[in-house]
Amino acid sequence: MLRPRLRTAGLTCAVCIALTVPLTTQTPTARADTGSSGSSGSVEIFLPVPTPAGLGALSAAMTQIGRPYKWGGTGPWSWDCSGLVQWAFSTVGISLPRVSQQQAKVGHAIPLSALAPGDIIVFYRDASHVGIYAGLGMVFNAYGPNGVPIGFTPLSHWSDIKTIRRFG
């Protein structure tokens, strides 16, 4: 019998981010050597459900609306894209690398079909831009040239999504 199990991937939050479904219909048998339930594997199906950490980071980032973009800016008076994302997640206790190329490699990779507010979206093949998905097709980000106010940009503005990452 297939029995879906809700799993939070080791996270302690009330919102489930993945559904794990066993790949076999075998009756589970305990194995002392591995602690396995006897199934041959599982598939993670990510749901478009925001995490509390992602929503908290988005809320923190939005307090910076209107501040100017500045290449290399790490706040508090001006920001570049990755500096804003790094700072926003630090306010909810999640330490991210400084630059977007490194931010593209951490957290859980999420398919576009499961995109939820608070997920970060890394753009372009070279991972040179990052923002926080705000919902309703909008991305909150620091976007240049220097001096442009931080704010919302339609997701449709970018045609090249490198990866979507989820934290917390």
Automatic annotation (TrEMBL):
<dbReference type="InterPro" id="IPR000064">
    <property type="entry name" value="NLP_P60_dom"/>
</dbReference>
<feature type="signal peptide">
    <location>
        <begin position="1"/>
        <end position="32"/>
    </location>
</feature>
<dbReference type="InterPro" id="IPR038765">
    <property type="entry name" value="Papain-like_cys_pep_sf"/>
</dbReference>
<comment type="similarity">
    <text>Belongs to the peptidase C40 family.</text>
</comment>
<dbReference type="GO" id="GO:0006508">
    <property type="term" value="P:proteolysis"/>
</dbReference>
<keyword id="KW-0378">Hydrolase</keyword>
<dbReference type="InterPro" id="IPR051794">
    <property type="entry name" value="PG_Endopeptidase_C40"/>
</dbReference>
<dbReference type="GO" id="GO:0008234">
    <property type="term" value="F:cysteine-type peptidase activity"/>
</dbReference>
<protein>
    <recommendedName>
        <fullName>NlpC/P60 domain-containing protein</fullName>
    </recommendedName>
</protein>
<keyword id="KW-0788">Thiol protease</keyword>
<keyword id="KW-0645">Protease</keyword>
<keyword id="KW-0732">Signal</keyword>
<feature type="domain" description="NlpC/P60">
    <location>
        <begin position="51"/>
        <end position="168"/>
    </location>
</feature>
<dbReference type="Pfam" id="PF00877">
    <property type="entry name" value="NLPC_P60"/>
</dbReference>
